[in-house]
Amino acid sequence: MSEKTTTGAANLGMPWYPLFHRDFTIDTIDWPNDAIGMLMRLMNYQWQNEFLPINQKRLAVIAMCQHDPDRWGEMWKDYLSHKFTEAEPGKLVNNRMRKEYIRICDRNAKASAFARKRWGKPEKDAIADAKAHPITDNRKQTKDTHSPTVRVPCQKIVDLYHEHCPDLPRVKVLSEKRKQAIRTRWKNFEFIRGVGKPGAAMELHKFNELDTWERYFKFITKHCSFMAGNNERNWTANFDFCIRESGMINVLENKYVDRKP
Hints:
- This protein has twelve helices and five strands.
- By secondary structure, the chain is mainly alpha-helical.
- The protein folds into two domains: 142 residues, no CATH class; 99 residues, no CATH class.
- The strands form two sheets. It has a three-stranded antiparallel beta sheet. Strands 4-5 form a two-stranded antiparallel ribbon.
- A hairpin with a 2-residue loop joins strand 2 and strand 3.
- Helix 8 packs parallel to helix 10.
- The termini are far apart.
């Protein structure tokens, strides 16, 4: 099946995409070969067209399994559905691929801007370039948390920490180092609920929303008394630990969750 697109990677001169082979191999280690092939076809289509359709018949055509609906239903339910989420109404994405897509688009846009500045390219040519690459403009019209101009509400995140983690040490100085750590988590950190749980709904949570931070701090207080000093060393986690990437991963992967007696 062939579809024309006005915003896909083909129009941006990106006939390739990064494949993190180690993660890909681990994630699909127990998959049948045909499921792996279907995943690759779906990923290729997303990179070419920016999104995948949500319609199952169209997905089966893209994966070249339209002639065996039963097999497609089995592959989608048991393997493929866990790799994609609904980003917009009627549109599916693999989130890691989407993140790489945006990163490379940003890199290309910066390179083009630098070249125009270095070689004195006329403004009218820059406008023509923008029209030829509409994804940049389209993405700026949406909530783009990768943009350096986004203001990260650092103080509000500290306030949520104080409100929902009263047993942990208070933040007395919101230093630039702490602000930078918050900004990094805000731009890049996300997790998926439901991974590894058969039948569980897959939920993507991004830390570019205050609601996610609030749920995170509430989870620490409700389920992680270990972090509040309930341990043999009387160790207590502070704000820096809670926003450190390794600390957040351990919390979200239940390393510090209270064990049932």
